[in-house]
Amino acid sequence: MKTIFSGIQPSGDLTIGNYFGAIKSWLKLQGEYNCFFCIVDLHAITVRQEPKKLREKILEVLAIYIACGIDPEKNNLFIQSHVPFHSELSWILNCYTYMGELSRMTQYKEKSLKVGESIPVGLFTYPVLMASDILLYNTDLVPVGSDQKQHLELARDIAERFNTLYSPTFKIPEPYIVENSSRIMSLQNPVKKMSKSDENENSYIKIMDDENVIKRKILKSVTDSKGVVSYNDDQSGIKNLINILISITGESVESVENRFLGKGYGDLKNELVEALLSELIPIQQKVRDFLKNKDYLEKVYKDGANSASEVSYKVLRKVKKKIGFI
Ligand code: AMP
Ligand code: TRP
Asked: What is the CATH number of the domain that holds 224?
């Protein structure tokens, strides 16, 4: 079985972008691959987090993974900071990564602009930690969105460099583009990706938003003045709403266009609200139930960390030997 590794930062509330773009596509992989789905809390502290909120979010992301159908019996679900080998390999790989490479990372350039003058070093070396996550598990495939492709390429470069300097040690990971995976756009500016860190709350829908909020955000979403429900790049708002709808229902674009012939944007939005509620409400209920069952969550993340440690320890040991550590 091939190995898959992916992770989400517990640095805010997960949006339907994370759901349709990441978590839902992971569901198709379980069973066919040996999957590690990590909650990357070490990555989250590259920007300031409030301890109480971070603690809550880590467990919430775990509960969301499980509530969305990621089976902890079939997959490895764990919290990054519970497996110390990530930090350890990250230090080592920092010594095999160049300043120039990290300076070229688009996400670093964007994020460092946002934090002002005091840029944490962690923000700069973030991609090295991500490379360590991936390389520790002999990962074959990494499901990532287009924004993470550059980081994955760097992980490959670092691995190849190490393998050339010593001898083959790391497996070289490939990006895994999930078929039909959807890129969900901002509801307020549909040429921009929907993001949990957007300042405008109306631009995203959280997986845990309540009914009225979901309804309000969809009804308020930006469209255009054409008045025709048609799927094209000139109508990016409508295109995005159709994309969200078909991510839920599996209907084809043509069929949606045909059904809405002669109908208005209000009809499309109302139908989308209903579809979203029927998808999200049962998940939200399950998340709340899991969050009440802390013992169960604890068992899941402890088991996850134990088996993740077994695999990653061996890789790290090999790395240390090759370098010349005793
Ligand atoms: P992030 O929220 O940036 O930590 O992203 C975690 C995962 O969710 C990554 O695999 C992203 O590619 C995916 N993701 C985040 N936002 C979206 C979006 N708007 N559309 C599709 N996928 C997304
Ligand atoms: N950097 C990724 C993001 O922001 C999260 C992440 C951390 C990740 N480690 C990873 C994704 C390893 C895939 C594999 O989306």
From this structure: 1.10.240.10
Nearest alpha carbon to residue 189 among 160, 161, 222, 215: 222
Q: Which of 6, 18, 39, 45 to mutate to test the pocket of ligand 1 (most atoms within 8 A of CB)?
A: 18
Tens of pLDDT, residue by residue over 67-91, are 999 999 999 999 999 999 999 999 9
Give me the half-sphere count of Cα atoms (radius 13 Å) on the Cβ side of residue 133.
31
Same domain, 75 and 153: yes
pLDDT single digits (tens) 3-18: 999 999 999 899 999 9
Question: Residue 76 maps to which CATH number?
Answer: 3.40.50.620
14 and 127 together in one domain: yes
Tally of domains within the chain: 2
| Whether residue 135 has its Cβ less than 6 Å from ligand 2 | no
Whether residues 221 and 280 share a domain: the answer is yes
Q: Is the CB of 133 under 6 A from ligand 2?
A: yes
Asked whether residue 259 falls in the same domain as residue 118, the answer is no
231 and 182 Cβ atoms separated by less than 8 Å: no
Mutation test of ligand 2: which of 25, 29, 148 has the most ligand atoms closer than 8 Å to its C-beta? 148
Distance 236 CA to ligand 2 centre (A): 27
- Burial (CB < 10 A; 0-12, 13-18, 19+), residue 203, is buried
Tokens of 273: 């609200």
Query: For residue 259, what are the domain limits?
Result: 201-288
Look at residue 180 in the predicted model and tell me its pLDDT.
57
**Closest alpha carbon to 307 in 90, 78, 81, 143:** 78
Residue 247 identity (one-letter amino acid): S
The radius of gyration computed from the CA coordinates of the chain, to the nearest angstrom, equals: 21
How confident is the prediction for the chain on average, in pLDDT?
95
Encode 73-107: b = buried (16+ Cβ within 10 Å), e = exposed: eebbbbbbbbbebbebbbebbbeebeeeebeebee
